[in-house]
Amino acid sequence: MSLLELQNVHAAYGSARVLHGVSLKVEKGERVALIGRNGVGKTTVVNTCIGAARLTSGKVSFMTRVQKPIRAFRAARSGISIVPQGRRIVPGLTVRENLLLGSAPDRKGPWNLEAVFAMYPILRERADGLGTAMSGGQQQMLAIGRALMANPDLLILDEPSEGLAPVVVDELGASLVRLAEQGTAILLIEQNFGLIRSVGDRYYVMAKGSVVEDGRLSALTAEELKRHVSV
Q1: Mean pLDDT calculated for residue range 159-178
Q2: Considering the entire predicted model, what is its pTM?
Q3: What gap in Å lies between CA 194 and CA 177, rounded to an integer?
């Protein structure tokens, strides 16, 4: 079953057209990487799904249901959780409070505070401290944990490796693979080819607002992958 599918999607910000006939899908339990250089429209794919960019034509469907774009505050109820670029930890709130913001009471599943703390023990240690006082890697764990609190069918991550040390990126990749093995589908928007290689199974390449290539990551050489993501 396709959790998320875009069919010939065109989208814009105001009068500026950004996406030009994008088609892609993420099946249940899949790990899909959306790759490409800066400014090619990768984040706009997410923004179109949640209504932050204007869908001008084409179809977006979730769980095979064709629908209008899901507003950000409703996405979690629909089974889509997003870890945004830049993490967006809420200032003035503790780690625990930031996690609780991600809860979707109507959705059932294995993820709650204790499960997130078990996944990322540092969050338990820092639970009563401010989320913004943690390191970049710890904040990324917090952003992922907050997304998991909604018990999503699909987790979308936008440039999660940004600003992180290589060893932290490796830990992040291992945790995302564990999530996928537990049944959460992943759409990874990323330029770090190491993270792409460790997490992704299938891939789509974007250029100038369009998907120009797709396939299995195992079929790409390291040099081909670097060529697609090099700035």
Answers
A1: 90
A2: 0.90
A3: 13
Number of structural domains found in the chain? 1
Q: Residue 95 phi/psi, 5° resolution? A: -55, -45
User: Measured over all CA atoms, what is the biggest interatomic distance in the chain, rounded to whole angstroms?
Assistant: 47
pLDDT, one tens digit per residue, over 116-134 is 999 999 999 999 999 999 9
What CATH number is given to the structural domain containing 30? Answer: 3.40.50.300
Residue 38 banded pLDDT, cuts 50, 70, 90: confident
Q: In the 8-state DSSP scheme, what is residue 110?
A: S
* Residue at 66: amino acid letter: V
In terms of residue numbers, what domain contains 184? 2-229
Beta strands in the chain (DSSP E): 2-13, 16-27, 31-35, 54-62, 65-67, 80-83, 154-158, 185-189, 202-207, 210-216
How far apart are the C-alpha atoms of 164 and 130, rounded to whole Å? 19
Tokens standing for residue 46: 């997410």
